[in-house]
Amino acid sequence: IPPAALHARPAAHQSARQALACALAGQAGHAHLQHAAAAEARRPDAPGWQPRAREVEHAKSDFDLRLEVINEIIQTEREYVRDLEITISVFFFPMQAIQLIPEATINQIFSNIEMIAELNRTFLEDITKSSSCQLAGDGGDDNSVASIGQAFKRMAQFFKSYLVYCTNQPTALNTLEQLSTNANFQSFLNVCHSDSKCRGLKISAFLIKPVQRICKYPLLLRELLKHTPEDHEEHGLLLDAQKSVNEVVDYINEGKRMAEGLQKIMDIQNDVDGCMNLPSPARRFVDEGRLSLSSRGEVVDIQLFLFNDLVLLARPKQGRMRTKGGEYVFKASLPLDETRLVNHADTDHIKNAFELKCKEKAFMICTSSNTEKTKWVKDIQKLIKAFQRKQILNLTGAEVRQRKNSRAGQKFALPSGATVIQARKRSNSNPPRPMPHVLKLAQPSQDNK
Fold first, then answer.
1. pLDDT band with cut points at 50, 70 and 90 for residue 298
2. Comparing C-alpha atoms, which of 147, 142, 156, 153 is closest to residue 128?
3. CA–CA dist 25, 416 (Å, integer)
4. What is the pLDDT of residues 130-174, one digit of tens each?
5. Strands 328-335 and 310-316
6. What angle is formed at CA 43 by the lines to CA 40 and CA 45, rounded to 5 degrees?
7. Nearest 5°: phi and psi at 295?
């Protein structure tokens, strides 16, 4: 490298650094100018000023926000009714026409969907008519919110018909699962699914829509109330509508839960050979698990089914027995009102065990770990105490009713040696004569003479 170049390189670097510094300064100055210009443009009095999206959102009136929610309610309801009609016209009616499966099986799949479709057509017509003025943009007299609230409240009681459909939903899905091996039925479904109206959705996706829709109504009403001021004249009506719809949804959920619980109990009865009369209106399934039963020095597997009023013990079938009937054989049924639980400490032979005693029978139950034992002991003791508390309350209620009946003049037994004193009458009418058994009780006994 020539010596002149070595001396020239620092100068070149210095020039480059100066140029870079100037460029950065220019960019900084340009950025400062851009920032100032942007700030000036954001001033409301600047020419061509446009509000940001957030500012536009905040600037919307309550009327505009309610209108958006109303539009969503109507639009989603229209789409829902359309899907109900597709379910009926594409799947239900053709299935009835070709008679590929029995009528009872078809009813298991579709339940009362025709009733629900007619109900929601009426509901869609009501909310569409009531809000047509505001959706058209002329403002009207702001009665659309109130009318939608009235529509919800008016239809709330009819929405209870969804209970039948929602309760039947597991049966419908199980029926479709069983028909999955039916080649002719699957060919029929393939033809139905190819219909452009289905939009690529399967029959199961259409059957679940009523369950999803009835649970959506409380959310839509809550959103509508969110954008309705408390001082609005229709706010109270919307609260009433929300309360009515929530009560219906709770009613449906509770009915569905009870139906599923009853179905579970019936399934258990079918799985346990020798188990009779297990379903009961007040009985609720709680839990089940595979444990061990220690009896006469032998430990065997046991299936424990826990209900709110009963403990059911069953032995799993072994070998050839599994090919017949259910999966278990009945061992014992222990009513909780007659059962005591004894918590046992670990010994050299038995660990993680508790004992269930009912009348003259006793069952030593063993678990795989102390954690599992603690859980079962806690759950069973809790149910025993709850059942005993319920019995005490029932007895107390019976005593209260008996006292009320006594005050009402019904017959009641007097204790031995009781004396009845006749109250003086203010009227001039003759007092009623005491009953013979009362006179006898009022007379002194022979021992007191």
1. confident
2. 147
3. 114
4. 776 444 444 444 444 346 888 888 888 899 999 999 999 888 988
5. antiparallel
6. 115
7. -145, 120
**Whole-number Å distance between alpha carbons of 337 and 91:** 51
User: How close are the terminal C-alpha atoms of the chain, in Å?
Assistant: 150
* Residue 287 φ/ψ, nearest 5 degrees: -165, 165
Neighbours of 386 (CB within 10 A): 13
Q: Is-above-0.70 flag for pTM?
A: no
Q: How far is 312 from 330, CA to CA, in rounded Å?
A: 8
Distance CA 28, CA 22 (A): 10
CA distance 149 to 235: 9
What distance in Å separates the CA atoms of residue 36 and residue 30, rounded to the nearest whole number?
Answer: 10
Rounded distance, CA 401 to CA 407, Å?
Answer: 10
Inter-residue long-range contacts of 213-222, CB under 8 Å, 24+ positions, other chains counted? 213/80, 213/120, 214/159, 214/162, 214/166, 214/248, 214/249, 214/252, 215/249, 216/76, 217/152, 217/159, 217/245, 217/249, 218/242, 218/245, 218/246, 218/249, 220/69, 220/72, 220/73, 220/76, 221/152, 221/245
Question: Each residue of 210-223: pLDDT tens digit?
Answer: 999 999 999 999 99
Average pLDDT over the chain reads 78
Query: To 10 degrees, what angle do helices 209-226 and 162-178 make?
Result: 140
* CA 147 centroid distance within chain: 29
